[in-house]
Amino acid sequence: MPPFATAWRAAALVTTLGLAMHAAWANEAVIRKNLAERLPSLPRIDEVRPTPMPGLFEVRLGTDILYTDAKGDFLIQGMLIDTKARVNLTEERLDKLTAIAFDALPLKDAFTTVRGNGQRKLAVFADPNCGFCKRFERDLAKLDNVTVYTFLYPVLGKDSEAKARAIWCAADRSKVWNDWMQRGVTPPEPKSSASCDTSALERNLAFGQKYRISGTPTTILANGQRIPGAIGLDRLEPLLAQAGAAGQ
């Protein structure tokens, strides 16, 4: 290809990209202006950006996501799903916005279970009355060479709160937790609740609210990846391997 042709194509590409960026900036300005004027009670807009759907823009308010057209004439609240890829783009975006670095986890508010050499690490937010959590715990018990940090996350009612307090106040939290979750042995009432500080449970709930942990179990891998729900070992094992490789 002649040098002038290569240079022409490069210049055309730069021009095209420049026009696209200018259009995006123009749309953002219009969207911000119109939404602010028409919806004065709307929280401050942190970010406006185009979505993969032509003509649709994401409006980010903190960690809340809305969608609008290029002029801000319409506002949509809901999930954007890529039907070809079968991906919930809204959930994917929210997971990125609320990603939790493993070293940012308040591990002092969790109890630890170590199996084998404990080299692989994961954290689990779980409710003691969550059926999916119980199923997940039975799978976790089959893992070797793992350290599991369990954050008691009682979101399913008063009984969950009572059981979480009993587990947290136990001398051997890991044993009492596993006895209950895997074998149905009710956690014993603490001998002296006055001497047991359960403020960690309140901090766990506040932490979960901040990072949009809306269901249990929710697992955080060493690379920060968040896994909602109970997944089987066939999926968990390769994810643990990937997380370990990313941390090396």
From TrEMBL:
Residues 1-26 form the signal peptide. Coiled coil: none annotated. Residues 115-240 form the Thioredoxin-like fold domain. Its main location: periplasm. Keywords: Disulfide bond, Periplasm, Redox-active center, Signal. The keyword Nucleotide-binding does not apply. It is found in: Periplasm. Residues 23-91 form the Disulphide bond isomerase DsbC/G N-terminal domain. InterPro entries: DiS-bond_Isoase_DsbC/G, DiS-bond_isomerase_DsbC/G_N, DiS-bond_isomerase_DsbC/G_N_sf, Thiol:disulfide_interchange, Thioredoxin-like_fold, Thioredoxin-like_sf. GO terms for cellular component: periplasmic space. Required for disulfide bond formation in some periplasmic proteins. Acts by transferring its disulfide bond to other proteins and is reduced in the process. Belongs to the thioredoxin family. DsbC subfamily. This is Thiol:disulfide interchange protein. It comes from Tepidimonas ignava. The gene is dsbC.
